[in-house]
Every structure is written in structure tokens, then in C-alpha cells.
Amino acid sequence: METRIIRIEENIDLQLIAEAGALIKAGGLVAFPTETVYGLGGDALNAASSGKIYAAKGRPSDNPLIVHIADMKMLHRIVTEVPEAAYKLAERYWPGPLTMIFNKAECVPKETTGGLETVAVRMPSNKIAKALIEAAGGYIAAPSANLSGRPSPTAVKYVIEDLDGRVDMIIDGGEADIGLESTIIDLTGKEPMILRPGYVTEEMLKEAIGRVDTDRTILDGDYKQAPKAPGMKYRHYAPKGNLVLVEGTAAQVVSYINEQLTGHKSRGAKTGVIATDETVNDYHADSIKSVGKREDEEQIAKHLFRVLREFDDEEIQVIYAESFESRGVGEAIMNRLLKAAGHQVVHLSEFCP
Ligand code: AMP
Ligand code: MG
């Protein structure tokens, strides 16, 4: 399949958006920018389109897709009821990086929800995404626009790398602002429950609706119990090299990682380190990349997936990463890093970084 790649500037070209929307309405696939990461979009109410999304990504079909909408009116048509908490959350955080799970209406095909009776819904704030959803008829099912198992794409060049020749169109809308996927909250149980941490933090959710639980499989790598978001059980975001996370004080982490690097280098392995601005000059790996200043979690979130992809491009075989505080946006950062590392963590002290 020939993939058409188009660029849409700040001043949105509505003719191009109409063409992209028509492709989706006709059952085609269009990769497009959102504020979180790039999405791979198809008509959410067309079972065949969802089937194509799974095929293009190589994604297991029990891993449900998020349905993207452009305004609140559209929500009511695809869910059986909208709980009070959803209105409160939508008021504060929609449009934005928050996905809510509802009981699905009949019109949402099981192919879109991975066989579940519930549906995940998000209203993105990115202007191109909003215009595209409207042009496509109101409902775009879109997982991240990467091949299954690879880090989510935060720039169009990674979408092209993974999906050129597998989708009808790719829209280049510049770099993703946030760089991590949305927070997912399930509103179908007794208590609202976070299934995936993201940019909208637990504290922010609590501010809006009070009590919020967290699916405990998110951070502790306890695979005996299946995570409630089916997609969280897969080893996502994985770089090609072996990634190990190291926890401890800055001095401990630097000296431990350098010691390990010496061993790997003597065996001829190509090595990399995920560092911060504070430590980037302290390592002696083949490739050392800072994700930003340690206290600037937003920058770290924005750069993490790009750095993982760059290590792949450089064919790095052994990667060590510093750890981050599991609070606020840090919880999402650590969740993605732990998954990328397959939960390989070295704890150097009781100190919680
Ligand atoms: P992605 O589209 O790649 O960001 O992945 C979407 C995530 O949302 C996956 O982890 C899914 O398992 C999760 N998800 C989507 N729909 C549901 C649902 N109905 N119930 C629970 N998790 C869901
Ligand atoms: Mg994904």
C-alpha cells in the first residue's frame, strides 16, 4: 500500500483534513498527531476498520482501542450512561490527556473494544486531532501509531519508520507536546480506578472527584494478577537493547552503572545510559542521553520515548537508566520505564529516589 504523507501547519488546511476524514469514513487508516503521542486512526464504529488497525500494528486483538471524540455530545451515543464523576473529570481535563472507561452502547463493535462490554473514550486537545475527528464522522479509534511492542511515537519520523506502507495516510503535525500516553481511569466499577498513570496525576483526579483507587499491578510488576487494562500486560515500549533501571542516591547510581559498563565494554557490548542533566557528564558509556533536569518531570516525560528509539537506531545492546520519583507525573514515567525494562531493577539502598 502506498502511504500518503502530508504536513499540516498550525493554520489548519481544512481541505487536507476533509480528505483525511473521508479516508477514515471509507474504512481507511490515518496516523495523526495528538498532544500525548501520535495515534493510528480508523472509524471506531466500523468493525472492519478496527480489524485493520490491529493488523497494521501487529497488535493482539484482545488489547482494546481508545475511541477519540471531539465534543461531549458525541459521548452519549457510544456509552450506556455517563456517571457524575465523568462530568466532573471532563469539565477539568477534557479536552486533554485523560481516557475514561464507560459501559459501551450497542453501536460500538466488539472489534474496537477487544471483546469487552466497556469502551475507553478520550477527547484530545490537539487541534489537528479535533478537526480530523469531526471530519471523520465523530469517532476515531486510535492506539499509539507504533508497531506493537515499540516505544510510542512522539514525532512523525517514528510513525513513518513503523507504519509507512501499512496505512493510507500519515499526518505530520510536529512533535507531541506531552510525549506519554493518556492517563486511563475506569468509571464502571464501585470506585473510580486508575488503570494507567499519565500526565493527569492521581492528585489531579482526586481534586476533581475525591476518592480514586489505583490498579496495583501498575507499578509492582506483580504479573500473577492480570492488569485491568488488557494492554498493560504486554511488554510495551521495549527498546531492542536490554534495559536495567537503577535506584539509589545519585552517587551510588553513577558509580554502580559505570562499574557495570566497564564489564559490558570489555565483552564488546555497545552501551547506553539514560541520564539526567545533572549526571550526563559522569558516565562513560558509548551513548549517554539526558532526558532533562531531574526536577522537570514534564521534560523527562516528553523525551523518554524518543531516547528509547534513539538507542534502537544506534543499536545499543545494554542500557542502564536512572530512576525517578514515583509521584505526580513521575509515576507515569516510572510505569513506562519499568515496562520497558521488563521490571529489571537494581536497588542500591533503602533510599527512595
Ligand atoms: P494505546 O492505545 O496503545 O494507548 O493503548 C490503549 C490502552 O487502553 C491499553 O492499555 C488498553 O488495554 C486500555 N483500554 C482500552 N479500552 C479499555 C477498556 N475498555 N477497559 C480497560 N482498558 C482499556
Ligand atoms: Mg500503545
Which shape, going by the Cα principal axes? Answer: globular
Look at the helices and sheets and give the structural class. Answer: alpha/beta
Kindly report how far apart the N and C termini lie: 48 Å
Question: What molecules are bound to this protein?
Answer: adenosine monophosphate, magnesium ion
The total strand number stands at 16
Please, could you describe this protein's structure?
The structure is a single chain. It is built from 11 helices and 16 strands. The protein has 353 residues and is α/β, with parallel strands linked by helices. The strands form 2 sheets. An 11-stranded mixed β-sheet has the order 1-8-2-3-7-4-6-5-9-10-11, with helices on both faces. A 5-stranded parallel β-sheet has the order 14-13-15-12-16, sandwiched between helices. Helix 7 (202-209) links the parallel strand 10 and strand 11 (213-214). The chain starts with a strand and ends in a 6-residue tail after the last strand. It binds adenosine monophosphate and magnesium ion.
What are the key terms here?
five-stranded parallel beta sheet; alpha/beta; 353 residues; binds adenosine monophosphate; 18% strand; eleven-stranded mixed beta sheet; binds magnesium ion
How is the topology of this model organized?
Elements: E1 4-7, H1 14-25, E2 30-32, E3 39-43, H2 47-57, E4 66-68, H3 72-78, H4 84-93, E5 98-103, E6 118-122, H5 127-135, E7 140-141, H6 156-163, E8 169-172, E9 183-186, E10 193-196, H7 202-209, E11 213-214, H8 217-220, E12 242-247, H9 250-266, E13 271-275, E14 287-290, H10 297-313, E15 318-322, H11 329-340, E16 345-347
Parallel strand pairs: 1-8, 2-8, 4-6, 5-9, 10-11, 12-15, 12-16, 13-14, 13-15
Antiparallel strand pairs: 2-3, 3-7, 4-7, 5-6, 9-10
Adenosine monophosphate binds next to β6 and β10.
